[in-house]
Amino acid sequence: MITALDHIAIAVVSIEEARTFYENLGLSVAGIEEVEHEGVRVAMIPCGGSRIELLEPLSEDSPVARFLERRGPGIHHLCLKSDDIDADDCSLREDGVELLREQPGPGAEGATVQFVHPRSAGGVLVELSEPAGSRS
Ligand code: CO
Description:
Elements: E1 2-11, H1 15-24, E2 31-35, E3 40-47, E4 50-57, H2 63-71, E5 74-82, H3 85-94, E6 105-106, E7 112-116, E8 126-130
Parallel strand pairs: 1-4, 5-8
Antiparallel strand pairs: 1-5, 2-3, 3-4, 6-7, 7-8
The structure holds cobalt (II) ion.
């Protein structure tokens, strides 16, 4: 089941440059992590009950690098928090929703994640994420 809006992700050329805007608003970067298999550096900025995620490509062949090339910096995906990613994966599959991974797998912060193709979600890339430590 989906329980919250976990974060909104923004593709940026440079976390160091992009973070200033949010810091000027009084928000702070809680942590920066490299997610090698996604080819990104990730900065998490808590904001009320949700978060803003800045995504910086680690290399030119990273999917985020291709996104920046095609569309420039901007909103990349939104992430919904799941309390049971396997169950949500299964029911979306049954509904014919197009998922990007064959099964949920590792994401940032040790979470288990799946992605919904924008074709199945009104033109928006949607990440589903079950936080680390909540998997049975
Ligand atoms: Co994300």
